[in-house]
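Give me the fold.
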Amino acid sequence: EVIGQRPFTFVKAPMGYGKTVAVLEFARTRLAADGRALWVPVLGGSEDVFWRDFCKVFGEAFPHEADTTQALEGLGYPYDSMRVDAACELIRRVNFPAQTLLIIDNYQFMPGRGFVRLCESLARAGQSNLHIVLITRNEYPGNKELLSLKGLLGHVGREAFALTRAEIMDYYACCGIGLSHEEAAALYAHTSGCISALYLYLLRYIKHGVLENPEGEPYDALLGTGDLGPLEVSSPESGTWKVKVYGNDVLDEDGQGFRILLKSYGQDPWSWIETRGPERLVSNESALLYANLSI
């Protein structure tokens, strides 16, 4: 609801929270039929590379403004206040006939504040039908509070993207998996509602039928006797993985020796760095074998 209410919107959340998808979905569903969205990702490199990409997207969206696009290209990236003012004046001359959403994605890769200053200038100028959305993982590189008080800047934070416990249950239910309230609470505690992390847990559940965090409860594996085949871990997380081994029907009063072989199949930079635990079990008891995984 914040996007479009003010001329400039700052969207900040960690990686994996679905910022870009949410903003693009907003543009697809909430813009008027004759509105348009201009998406310009910051792909790294330099300010000049970004400015070239920006001018290209701008020119393709507004072919009737070829002179303005050419002037912006000639001006170059707004490194200083003079170029900021000049770029602002050029863009102010553009007639945006319908609501236009200018989306700058992955701004955390952009060094310097030049483009933010341009966005602030355009917001102060009150350009009709132009709304700017800046998507980033970092804090706002300016006086966010002052701009917000003046009604120029809207802010969308991590809490807007984080799924609640009820939403986690709904999400998993849509994928055919019913969760208890306790399981949803545990997932929320482990992921903070991050959609990407929840998706990875979903894949692991589908493949292995477990939802535990590797740092939480031990993974129970009834090994029995003989060669039982692999206890497979896919896309492991950093930390200590614990395998619980049961000593069922051990005939020797002194216990029975066992061992677990750990193999890695070219999964750099994953590596097993330590295993520790008992070497023998007695009947009807269990023990934990620890395998520390470094990533």
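The chain has nine helices and eleven strands.
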